[in-house]
Design brief:
Helices cover 29% and strands 26% of the residues. By secondary structure, the protein is an alpha/beta fold. Strands 5-2-1-6-7-9-8 form a 7-stranded mixed beta sheet, sandwiched between helices. Helix 3 links the parallel strand 1 and strand 2.
């Protein structure tokens, strides 16, 4: 499939998200920290994963998928199978809409569609109960700000089901997350930092866009 990193970012930027810009989008759920992954950040993570051989032909689990940006990007980059997992039925409904929409996108005369026909599954369940094995786990979990260690609950599942994990975290918690991975028998093979944008979703927010530092950690299970 002909696709560039920039082209991937453009496609992902057109997907519906939690940001409130009208009736067609979902309202952000603050307590659950359902912050939509920025399209530029998602495309950067997915592109690097693809270059490492972690996407094409792989079984991918998008844990806490929300509206599906990471899993859909994996579909576009040639994943063999993608599992979208979330306990929010509305989020999964929009993820299905988003997945369907990418098949109709045309860029510079070249149609980009899901012609690799990946197997796609949607699981409406608590991520903590998910047990289907995968090659790669992708996740932008709750940051653990509203509910302490909510991020760790996601990581526990990822460590059980996949030998390679890409996870997003607030940079200030990276030391703790790295320590957790190491205790679980994983090594950290890459860390990349980003400026994560959150758009104002309440009249009480003073800034239109608030940014904070996050990092994507690639963790790989150590061979015994």
């Amino acid at each position: 499939m002909d696709i560039t990193k920039g082209g991937l970012a453009i496609i992902l930027s057109k997907l519906k998200s939690f940001e409130r810009h009208g009736d067609s989008n979902l309202k952000q759920k603050v307590r659950d920290e359902q912050y939509s992954t920025d399209a530029e950040i998602a495309s950067e993570i997915l592109w690097e994963a693809c270059l490492r051989g972690d996407i094409a032909g792989k079984v991918i689990a998008d844990l806490g998928c929300g509206t599906g940006i990471l899993g859909i990007g994996a579909c576009l980059l040639g994943a063999k199978e993608v599992c979208f997992v979330d306990n929010d039925p509305l989020a999964l409904s929009v993820a299905r809409e988003n997945l369907k929409s990418v098949g109709n996108i045309c860029m510079k005369g070249s149609k980009i569609c899901l012609n690799t026909e990946p197997s796609v599954y949607f699981f409406e369940e608590d991520v903590r109960k998910f047990r289907k094995m995968a090659d790669i786990a992708l996740l932008n979990p709750p940051f653990g700000t509203k509910v302490r260690h909510a991020d760790v609950e996601f990581l526990k599942v990822a460590c059980k089901i996949a030998p390679v994990i890409y996870s997003l975290h607030k940079s200030v918690t990276s030391g703790y997350i790295i320590g957790f991975y190491q205790k679980e028998g994983f090594r950290i093979s890459a860390i990349k930092e980003f400026s994560f944008p959150i758009r104002a979703s309440s009249k009480y927010h003073r800034q239109r866009i608030y940014r904070f530092k996050v990092c994507c950690i690639r963790a790989e299970r150590l061979k015994k």
